[in-house]
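Hey team,

Sharing the Porin run so nobody has to redo it. Sequence (497 residues) first:
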Amino acid sequence: MASLPHHEAPTLDVGVQVAEFSPIATDPVTTPDGNPNALEQLPMVNELSDVKPTDWAYQALKSLMERYGILSAYPDKTFRGNKPMTRYEFAAALATTLDKIEGILANAIGDQYVRQDAITVRRLQKEYATVLSQVRERIDNTESKAAELEANQFSTTTKLQGQQIAAITGGSSASSTIVSRTRLNLITSFNQKDLLVTQLESGNNGSDAVGAEQREGFNLLGSAGLFANAGGLDYSDYESNLKLRRLYYTFRPQDDLAVTVGAKMAPRDFIDKNSYANDEALDFSSGIFLNNPLIIQNQIDRTSGAGIAVAWSPKNSKFAARGLYIAADANQPTQGISADRRQASVEVEYAPSNQLKLKLQYTNAQINDTDINAFGVNAEYRMNLNTGFFGRVGYGSYEGFNTAINRNLDAHPFSWSVGLQQRNLVIPGTLAGVAVGQPFVTGDLGNATQTNFEAFYNLRLSDSVSVTPIFTIVTNPDNDKDNGTIWQSTLRTVFSF
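Structure output:
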């Protein structure tokens, strides 16, 4: 998510912090709390403990302080003349000084020393005219932007984010369609250590070639087909009605422990993340490559549910641990938090170096009256700054009468996927990837094994817009060799703000 609002020292857009002091000031500055960095006016330069008559700038300081009264010092009677300052700081201070000197000049034309200083001042004005003009313009722009933000701010604690995915897709035995999904996120923090996430979502009920060609009415892993979302676009088949997709609150009892509770939580937000295959708006679009279908139960992740998640990340440790419990129908009196469509998962991460991460996982779930137990491994390896590999492997047990396919199951499926991601391929700023995987390898369902292939090339047009051509192939759909191979091409466009 986006960075959270925080209080900091005000800054100019040239990078100068103005909460600090400037060695030059026109008026004495005092603070009621005795701030040691506050400035105060001193009438005599010889009162400064760190300025001596032998210093090369002594006479200049003496003239500016005692003749014009425009230099200030610290309460401890130091000038701190060695403190560095930028060209912009000097220009801003000089502009203020010039205003005061002009007033003095108007009342002291007969003073020969003042006349000499006037010559110097006007020479400096000429030399720094361009810089002074730039500083004034920057200050005016900053004040204008600040006033606009104050007048139109959404909230002092909440940041609004939005994402629109619009994809043109078509494939074998399927007409070209447009698939769309829109999300609005409200990200709120009250004390810098917590996070309230509210997400609204809607789609256009758009379908793709993979979903259209898989068998309707058979739903083991998702919404359409026996292994729905194991091959189709992850952002397809979203209803047009605006829905609350996520609503949860994260707080930290201690710095290395995060606890999340909510009425709408998705398992993928908390476990089975991977740096190279995890975001349907950025990299792969097929569900099989975004998550392990045995570890992340799609019927819970797709709808989200009420639950709790805990993440423990000890400082300076190679290990981390996460756990969650989510019930998709916790709001239904006949279901509750312990009935059908629930998932409990734990994950332990080991990162021996910055290049390698390993996650060991376990999920216990009940979906469609079937008891599920699954173990998984999630791995990623960064070869260099541009190249990375990923892989997910799962093994599970599905037992009981499954109400989705109306048959008893005693299946021990195996799931796997591997892939490669490459940055800056041909064009700087691009992201490309290729992957292959099998969502549900078992002899208990079908007479073959479904295999998925996907390749993409993400071209970022700006900070807010990206365009990605995607090519997908699914062989033996639904583990049935009689089903023809499905191919699908997609042009995904993502708008974000």
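Residues 129-152 form the longest helix (24 residues).

Ping me if you want the raw files.
A.
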